[in-house]
Amino acid sequence: MKPLRVALLGCGTVGTEVVRLLDEQADDLAARVGAPLELAGVAVRRLDRAREHVAPELVTTDAMSLVTRDDVDLVVEVIGGIEPARSLILAAMKTGKSVVTANKALLAEDGATIFAAAREYGADLYYEAAVAGAIPLLRPLRESLVGDHVHKVLGIVNGTTNYILDQMDTHGASFTDALEEAQSLGYAEADPTADVEGFDAAAKAAILAQLAFHTPVTAADVHREGITEVTAADVAGAKAMDSVVKLLAICERIPDPDGRNGGRGVSVRVYPAMIPRSHPLASVREAYNAVFVEARSAGSLMFYGAGAGGAPTASAVLGDLVAVARNRVGGTRGPVEVTYAELPVLPMGETITRYYVQLDVADRSGVLAQVAELFARNGVSIQAVRQEGHGDDAQLVVVTHRAPDAALAATVEALRRLDIVREVAAVMRVESG
Ligand SMILES: NC(=O)C1=CN([C@@H]2O[C@H](COP(=O)(O)OP(=O)(O)OC[C@H]3O[C@@H](n4cnc5c(N)ncnc54)[C@H](OP(=O)(O)O)[C@@H]3O)[C@@H](O)[C@H]2O)C=CC1
Ligand SMILES: N[C@@H](CC=O)C(=O)O
């Protein structure tokens, strides 16, 4: 059968592995698709690099000419970022190509434009690699679970930050050293700020929430906190509580007291939190990711695997490439995104959370009573409290019960103003799943 011609946009960490797999598995892929997949061209930024498995004449810096060529059927976008990726994907779909992308930043910022173009031009758009690397997660949400009522998605969706936190917890590594390692292993984004400040996880959370709840959610809607403020003291504090610190992405429907089926709205948030060591997410090490999905009929599902890195991500890209190629051979189309629900994204202040608070206090009798009274005044009840040390080293560790985040944050602000509190040494949310 006539080969299907593939334009690859980007040949960095992920693109290099895509090319290798296309080359090494060419015969198997042809058998699975029903037609050979042939590389038509590779667009990059710099021509002066050696590209393994790529004939030099295929390499170009003119990505737009490549995607709009008549002899290209399938386009794989692994450049990343908003532009030129968006214009290239739109041009590809407009000129009849099927598109595979790993670009969560673009889909979370302007997914509406991309999905609308896919509908308008009847183009296939697959993006499994955009969330949680190698883990098949989006296809289960887009297809297998589309008949169910998903009410929660919770997990670790950024490999770089999980690698950093794991190295800090397990080996006492410094933040900077662990980040450098994560970069050298190909886990981090081109600008690692996206990872450590939680932008990457927030983009993934937006994509997950949109698919899970069929409602528009963009990266800007997501409450985001990264891990740059997580200190060695936080990690040690978690250890003392038999817990670990993880950067979590949480998407949930907030139940409606009136019993409306869709819920009162959705909460979509990313922040570092303490979770007990006994929780399955606590044992997710290095750059692995894990995501729980809770659905009304399916119950609780767990997805686990490599969340970042060239080869794992290329596996997800190749899976999509085979899917769009098969659709072309069979003259069919894959799933189309429909966001029919208009659920509001609720503010973080209304979200119910729990806090761990560590205070350096003046070692005075009555300190516990004053602190407890302040929590109570803000409507927050205390689940556990521990007093440690004496004199200048006295500390109070408080774990709260569940309360609206705004009330918890207001309590911490009030604690900072209390004269017996020398310093609020650590504040972190506590999640138990
Ligand atoms: N790395 C990972 O673990 C994962 C990455 N992703 C996503 O995959 C995508 C690619 O990531 P990754 O491979 O790590 O990124 P890299 O930075 O390693 O590679 C980017 C590639 O795009 C090329 N490029 C950059 N700008 C342009 C441009 N204007 N025109 C043409 N080519 C351009 C670069 O060219 P040159 O080689 O000349 O510099 C490079 O080949 C991103 O969307 C990322 O978020 C998703 C999951 C995991
Ligand atoms: N930088 C990302 C790469 C995969 O999405 C991460 O660390 O998870």
TrEMBL record:
InterPro entries: ACT-like_dom_sf, ACT_dom, Asp/hSer_DH_NAD-bd, HDH, HDH_cat, HDH_CS, NAD(P)-bd_dom_sf
Top-level taxon of the source organism: Bacteria
Residues holding NADPH: 104
Any one of the GO BP annotations: threonine biosynthetic process
Active site as annotated: 204 (proton donor)
The protein's enzyme class: oxidoreductase
Catalysed reactions, semicolon-separated: L-homoserine + NAD(+) = L-aspartate 4-semialdehyde + NADH + H(+); L-homoserine + NADP(+) = L-aspartate 4-semialdehyde + NADPH + H(+)
Binding of L-homoserine, residues: 189
Cofactor: a metal cation
Domain ACT: 356-429
Molecular function terms, GO-annotated: homoserine dehydrogenase activity; metal ion binding; NADP binding
Similarity field: Belongs to the homoserine dehydrogenase family.
Record function comment: Catalyzes the conversion of L-aspartate-beta-semialdehyde (L-Asa) to L-homoserine (L-Hse), the third step in the biosynthesis of threonine and methionine from aspartate.
Name of the protein described by the UniProt record: Homoserine dehydrogenase
